[in-house]
Amino acid sequence: MLKGIIRVSAFFQKELAEVLRQPRLLLSLIMGPFLILLLFGIGYSGQARVLSTLLVVPKGSLLETQAKDYAENLGKQLRLVGVTSDESDARQRLARGEVDTVVVVPNDSLERIAKGQQALLTLYHNEIDPTQSAYVGYFGRVYVSEVNRRILLYLTQEAQKRAGESQQEMGEAQAAIKQARAAILSGDRERAKDALERLDRSTTALAGLVGVSADVMQGVKQNLGVQAPVSGADTLIDDLQKLRSDSTEMRRSLDRSDVSVVTWDAQLRRIEDDLSQMDSLIQRLKDIPAGVLVSPFNTQTQTVAKLQPTFVIFYAPAVLALILQHMSVTISALSLVRERLLGAIEVFRVSPISPQETLLGKYLSYMVLSLAIAAILTVLLTLILKVPILGNWRDYSMVMGLLLFASLGIGFFISALSNSDSQAVQLSMLVLLASMFFSGFVMPLTAMIWPIRAI
């Protein structure tokens, strides 16, 4: 037992001595990974790419002067470099790499829309990266949404200008109801009928003038099942239609002799009260900004997570794990290959040392070395890059130890399979690539199909 411990410790000291007598190797093992982490932390901004865009519009189009406003509403990811009417020149500039995208507004937009067809905005790009190509496509959809929103905003503003006439129509409706009441009380049924006909015309006009705002409130309630912001606004059109129905029914009842004046007066008073409530409601609807009517909802993102890390803080631990894994796999993969090429393995076979003792000695030496490097890099990461350790240090140490233990095991397995240094390095690189692509570092695992995700 004691001899076995001595032989294992001999290999342990031998491997450590080989590393420690090479200060450049030791420095590269420590500073190399840290410099990678440092450059990653300094250089990664996490900002979406800014697209320099050239807009092609028909000559004399209003978009020549309005393009800047469109660009500002699309956010910082769009940098408008110019507006032109020469599509050929714009596409040549795209091919030369002077711009990232070219947006072409068709000359026949009005004609196509008049025919019931959608006008097609064409967005040209020169990307071969699928991720960047998808980003440009998403940007194009955002741009089209903004154009559509601008058109709807203009239509809504025009409708609200017409809605300003609603005050006059409401005044005429209220005057008509008062005249109808006075005519009923005086027994003049014909004059009451004329007043009620004017009331019908006024309420019909009111329904058209306030239709846009009321329809938006109705849409909010029907599509989301929520209470409308303005009480009763979602049913305003229905209320106006009911009021016209009541007025028409009363006008017909004036030809009957079995209905008393008191009943007619009570009905007119109820209609008058309804008109007063609608007047207040219509005034409130007119005050809703056109931008809110066009885009009733916006989005606000809130997280319930206790931590909101930056990109560097989020990715730095993963980069550290990959670097330590690759380092451990590589140094252990080269250890047995190197000794096999030097002929030392033949010496070990005729010596009283067993293969298990050889492997255990190497395992312990590289484990101590890897843990020391991991500890130094962790300290540098927390002190210089300000990456916090929020968990338990004991758990962190246990996870790090298991990572290094598994990595060394993979490295020794590669070493047993390899016949040369180059083959060992190649297989170590394959392990690194597999770790990057199948660990969720490069892309989320949810983006992969289940059998591959299980790997």
What level of helicity do the residues show?
over 70%
Number of helices: 18
Strand content: under 5%
Q: What order do the SSEs take from the amino end to the carboxyl end, as H and E?
A: HHEHEHEHEHHHHHHHHHHHHH
Termini separation comes to: 41 Å
Shape: elongated
**Number of strand elements:** 4
Number of discrete domains? 3
> Largest sheet at a glance?
4 strands, mixed
Structural class: mainly alpha
The average pLDDT score comes to 75
Strand order of the largest sheet: 2-1-3-4
Radius of gyration equals 39 Å
* Unreliably modeled segments: 223-234
Key descriptive features of the protein:
4-stranded mixed sheet; 3 domains; single chain; Four Helix Bundle (Hemerythrin (Met), subunit A); mainly alpha; 18 helices; abc type-2 transporter like fold
Brief summary of the model shown:
Helix content is 70%, strand content 5%.
Q: Would you mind describing this structure in some detail?
A:
This protein is mostly helical and 455 residues long. It folds into three domains: 2-44 and 314-454, no CATH class; 51-160, abc type-2 transporter like domain (abc type-2 transporter like fold, 3-Layer(aba) Sandwich), CATH 3.40.1710; 164-294, Four Helix Bundle (Hemerythrin (Met), subunit A) (Up-down Bundle). The protein is 70% helix and 5% strand. The chain has helices at 2-20, 23-43, 63-73, 87-95, 109-114, 130-163, 166-186, 189-209, 211-224, 236-253, 261-286, 290-294, 311-342, 344-350, 355-383, 393-417, 421-437, 450-454; strands at residues 51-56, 78-84, 101-104, 122-125. Strands 2-1-3-4 form a four-stranded mixed β-sheet, sandwiched between helices. The two termini are 41 Å apart.
